[in-house]
Design goal:
The chain is an alpha/beta fold and 498 residues long. Helices cover 36% and strands 15% of the residues.
Length: 498
């Protein structure tokens, strides 16, 4: 137990330790539901002893929520959840990958009061689990099935028929779901306020027409990478008047014409992701004019024939309240046009002084852009990808003017050296640093990161010159929990032993 442990944590630790001694167990049945909840949460966070957790679950009759995400619990523990916690309202099993479908079905059959169920990244979740939910947990309101790729349209149709109180459904990255399932959901689950269909690649206009015309309570709709959609899915059908956020990134056959429909039918919309839409300037500018007072996030990743300094000037004029600004391209060949320059970025920085998150990708900008951005905007997250005219001098400005910078990403740089890393390492609040494919980064630069006392995430992928030596030293000094050194070919065979 650390020096800064609270009195509550000390008490929870004492209670947990009492369960190691069968003669001195503390009776927790009389504790309030809130304290029982805190005890179980604390034990999951700090203990690896499944038997001790089972013992506590057996007497924590007032438990209403259980989060076993990323704990890799055994199937026997999951079964005990059903035996001992029939009153659960919320259950999170995210990333419990070894759990079998039958085990999950058993829990569902016993926890019939469940309202929230998170099953993300469990490979064995299948249509049998969906049938069990439909049969035993028909009052469920939140269901998350990210990357549960054995769930098919058949399983979701069972959900649609029985779980009509559903408010939130997440089927992100499920490539087995087709139009019939989403159409059934839209027709039956009209209370939906959140729907994530990202990368459900088989969906077409027919199911999305049902969603946008029937689910009128929707506030958040994610259709990123649903690449078969066109404008016809929205224009003339859209009735989601409560919508505030929509993600249309990589809907390659959808154009900015749909923005006119969105703002007309959903007057409170304040966030639209539109990377790689078919870009037409007039409807885009009309959208900006009609949302300028509240628009907080803007992604401009399209053909440079349309996005240039002149367009950025208009964005700066119309959207002074922007909080997040992302601009660039993934096509480096368009750099030859040089149509986004320091002038455009400078105008954004001088007009939109509330920006906290900036992403700049493959732009022909220089250190001057970075200088004016960091001098005028309270940036906490900064990402620079393949901007080869940004040098150590730009990082010096960032280190000097961004005392609250928390996340920094430099990707694909031939110009950033150890000197630039030293300038940014002086920032005491940095928590995440990504220096990926930085060709001039060496061990000396990596070692400078020891001054980032709050650093928890460090990604150095494709940094071909670094060795294991500075990494080992950083681990002795800092509390890094997320390290990426893929393709760092000089790590050596002894790194993992160390």
């Amino acid at each position: 137990m650390g020096k800064n442990a609270s009195l509550l944590e000390l008490c929870l630790a004492f209670i947990c330790n009492s369960f190691s001694n069968s003669d001195n167990k503390i009776d927790i049945s009389s504790l309030s539901s809130e304290l029982q909840q805190k005890l179980v949460d604390y034990m999951i966070k700090t203990e690896d002893d499944c038997e001790k957790l089972i013992t506590i679950l057996k007497v924590a009759k007032k438990l209403r929520a259980l989060d076993l995400s990323n704990c890799y619990p055994s199937s026997s523990l999951i079964v005990k959840v059903g035996d001992f916690c029939p009153s659960l309202r919320e259950l999170n099993l995210q990333n419990c990958r070894g759990v079998e479908s039958k085990t999950i079905c058993t829990v569902i059959e016993k926890c019939t009061l469940l309202e929230t169920l998170i099953l993300n990244d469990i490979w064995n979740v299948d249509d049998d689990c969906m049938k069990a939910i439909a049969q035993f947990c028909s009052k469920i309101t939140v269901l998350s099935l990210q990357r549960c790729r054995r769930v098919t349209s058949e399983g979701l149709i069972h959900i649609a028929k029985s779980c009509t109180d559903l408010r939130s459904l997440d089927t992100k990255d499920n490539r087995s779901i087709e139009d019939d399932a989403i159409s059934a959901i839209a027709k039956s689950c009209t209370k939906l306020v959140y729907l994530n269909l990202k990368s459900c690649l088989h969906l077409t206009n027919s199911s999305i027409v049902e969603v946008v015309s029937r689910c009128t309570n929707l506030r958040v709709l994610n259709l990123k990478n649903c690449a078969r959609l066109t404008d016809d899915a929205f224009i003339g059908h859209f009735k989601c008047s409560s919508l505030t956020k929509i993600n249309l990134d990589f809907c390659l056959f959808v154009s900015t014409k749909v923005l006119t429909t969105l703002i007309t039918c959903a007057p409170n919309i304040d966030e639209v992701n539109m990377q790689y839409l078919i870009f037409e300037v007039d409807p885009f500018l009309d959208f900006l004019k009609r949302t300028s007072h509240r628009l907080r996030k803007l992604h401009l990743f399209n053909d440079y024939n349309f996005i240039d300094d002149e367009l950025l000037f208009k964005v700066a004029e119309l959207c002074p309240n922007l909080k997040r600004f992302f601009v660039g391209s993934n096509d480096v060949r368009r750099l030859i046009n040089n149509v986004i320059t320091d002038k455009g970025i400078g105008k954004i920085a001088l007009s939109c002084k509330e920006i906290t998150k900036v992403f700049l990708s493959e732009l022909a900008i220089t250190d001057e852009s970075l200088k004016v951005l960091v001098q005028n905007c309270p940036i906490t997250v900064l990402s620079i990808k393949d901007c080869q005219q940004v040098t150590d001098e730009g990082l010096r400005y960032a280190g000097q003017y961004l005392p609250n910078l928390e996340k920094l990403s430099i990707l694909g740089s031939y110009t950033i050296t150890d000197s630039g890393v030293l300038e940014i390492a002086k920032n005491g609040k940095l928590q995440e640093i990504r220096l990926i494919d930085c060709h001039k980064l060496s061990d000396a630069g990596v070692l400078q990161l020891q001054y980032c006392k709050k650093l928890r995430v460090l990604h150095l992928a494709e940094s071909y010159s670094i060795t294991s030596s500075p990494i080992i030293e950083l681990f002795q000094i800092l509390k890094i929990v997320d390290l990426n050194i893929s393709y760092c070919k000089r790590m050596g065979p002894y790194f993992f032993e160390a």
